[in-house]
């Protein structure tokens, strides 16, 4: 994502603070008082209270008079991206065709900062016990898509610095939690042009991903499939899914 230079006179601080208030709510902070929000955002308590009351008046928050929590109206803001963004709309028919061809669940993902964001998906006919919902945010080092996108980061020093600062939580007995093997996987992915990740987020699940490029050769997203390992080896899985994925990525290049 390209950062836009903004003249200070065009900056609306209130909008920045209002969005920061909404983003402060998460799984660990689902309900907060004005004092708790002030600590999380750096606002004064009185300012935090005014933002909370305004957002509650607009319907984005619910309050019992003390604690505040998000309402479903917040989804209007996020869902506008899926309704209006060009990339998910272009990708959807390609994902549908690929899913039918492979009988697997297919995904399109991008990096939002250092988080992997699922922006399009199509489920395979086979019922699976795994999968990401649309809009899911995942640590990129746990997925094949994330490894692909990290492998095309041009600022390697920033990548190393970020990874070294992370406390990586093991989701399975196989999850990599130290930087060195992850960096090796990222380097390998950049060399071979695809990524295979096994059992990092869920036991028995393998992810395969390829970069999606535009006509200028820029990587704009990652195309992936999530498949149960069963008795299929990594080599057999690659032979089965990789050519179709690469064909799909090449077809999409012409429309991006």
Walkthrough of the structure:
- This protein has 256 residues and is of the alpha+beta class.
- The protein has two domains: 8-76, Arc Repressor Mutant, subunit A (Orthogonal Bundle); 85-253, GAF domain (Beta-Lactamase).
- The chain is built from nine helices and eight strands.
- The strands form two sheets. Strands 5-4-3-8-7-6 form a six-stranded antiparallel sheet, with helices on both faces. A two-stranded antiparallel ribbon has the order 1-2.
- Strand 1 and strand 2 (68-70) form a beta hairpin.
- The radius of gyration is 21 Å and the shape is globular.
- The two termini are 15 Å apart.
Defining key terms:
globular, 2 domains, six-stranded antiparallel β-sheet, 9 helices, single chain, 43% helix, alpha+beta, Arc Repressor Mutant, subunit A, 256 residues, 8 strands, 18% strand, two-stranded antiparallel ribbon, Beta-Lactamase
Topology:
Elements lengths: L12 H11 L10 H8 L3 H13 L3 E3 L4 E3 L3 H11 L1 H17 L2 E8 L2 E8 L14 E2 L5 H8 L4 H9 L14 H14 L2 E4 L6 E9 L5 E10 L5 H20 L3
Antiparallel strand pairs: 1-2, 3-4, 3-8, 4-5, 6-7, 7-8
What's the story with the biggest beta sheet? 6 strands, antiparallel
Give helix and strand order, one letter per element, not per position: HHHEEHHEEEHHHEEEH
Look up the CATH topology of the largest domain: Beta-Lactamase
Strand elements, count: 8
Distance between the termini: 15 Å
Shape: globular
Number of structural domains: 2
Q: Strand order of the main beta sheet, please? A: 5-4-3-8-7-6
**Count of DSSP-assigned helices:** 9
Low-confidence stretches: 125-129
The CATH superfamily of the largest domain is identified as GAF domain
Mean pLDDT: 90
Q: Helix- and strand-based class?
A: alpha+beta
Q: Per DSSP, what share of the residues sits in E-state strands of 2 or more residues?
A: 15-25%
CATH architecture call of the largest domain: 2-Layer Sandwich
- Work out the radius of gyration: 21 Å
In CATH's first tier, which class of the largest domain applies?
Alpha Beta
């Amino acid at each position: 994502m390209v950062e836009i230079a903004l003249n200070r006179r065009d900056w609306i601080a209130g909008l920045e603070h209002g969005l920061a208030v909404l983003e402060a709510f998460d799984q660990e902070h689902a309900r907060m008082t004005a004092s708790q929000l002030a600590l999380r955002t750096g606002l004064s308590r009185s300012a935090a209270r005014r933002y909370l009351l305004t957002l509650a008046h607009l319907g984005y928050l619910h309050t019992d008079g003390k604690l505040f929590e998000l309402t479903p109206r917040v989804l209007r803001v996020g869902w506008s991206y899926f309704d209006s963004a060009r990339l998910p709309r272009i990708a959807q028919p390609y994902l549908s065709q690929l899913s039918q061809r492979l009988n697997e669940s297919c995904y399109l993902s991008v990096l939002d900062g250092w988080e992997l964001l699922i922006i399009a998906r199509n489920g395979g006919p086979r019922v699976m016990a795994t999968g990401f919902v649309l809009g899911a945010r995942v640590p990129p080092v746990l997925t094949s898509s994330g490894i692909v996108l990290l492998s095309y980061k041009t600022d390697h020093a920033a990548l190393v610095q970020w990874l070294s600062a992370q406390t990586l939580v093991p989701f399975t007995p196989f999850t990599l939690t130290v930087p060195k093997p992850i960096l090796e996987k990222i380097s390998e992915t950049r060399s071979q042009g695809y990524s295979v990740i096994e059992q990092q987020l869920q036991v028995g699940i393998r992810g395969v991903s390829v970069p999606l490029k535009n006509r200028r050769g820029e990587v704009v997203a990652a195309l992936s499939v999530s498949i149960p390992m069963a008795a299929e080896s990594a080599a057999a899985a690659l032979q089965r899914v990789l050519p179709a994925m690469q064909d799909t990525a090449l077809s999409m290049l012409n429309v991006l």
